[in-house]
Amino acid sequence: MHYQGESYMAIRNIGSDPMERLAKLTSESAVVIFSVSSCCMCHAVKRLFCGMGVNPAVYELDQDPRGEEMERALTRLLVNSQAVPVVFIGGKLIGSMDRVMASHINGTLVPLLKEAGALWL
């Protein structure tokens, strides 16, 4: 798991539109997780991916000066779901913890990860 310390500078330098920033950040890594450091569900989803051998890019919104507006943009994408954690695989929105776990349980998560180049097994 790599935390995007330099991402705060990157986020600051991307256009002012939060949706544009989300699109840019989610296209830069095979697996991207938007998280809040104190969130237990965020911790669980990060551990799930690490336990599978995936090295996700993690953006901790509570540690980012523009994190609140990023979280609002994520909430707009996730109709009827909590704002964090939010997972993107291969640049595509997977969703929050419930969608990730459903994909894991029904066997569709591993193929998505392989297709995105996040898993080689």
Automatic annotation (TrEMBL):
Q: Name one Pfam family in it.
A: Glutaredoxin
UniProt signal peptide: none
State a GO cellular component annotated for this protein.
Answer: cytoplasm
Q: Which UniProt keywords apply?
A: Cytoplasm, Redox-active center
Reading the lineage from the top rank, the first entry is: Eukaryota
Where the record annotates domain Glutaredoxin, the positions are 31-94
Question: Main site of residence?
Answer: cytoplasm
Q: Where in the cell is it found?
A: Cytoplasm
Record NCBIfam families: GlrX-like_plant
The UniProt similarity line reads: Belongs to the glutaredoxin family. CC-type subfamily.
Name of this chain's protein:
Glutaredoxin-C7
Which organism was this protein described from?
Hibiscus syriacus (Rose of Sharon)
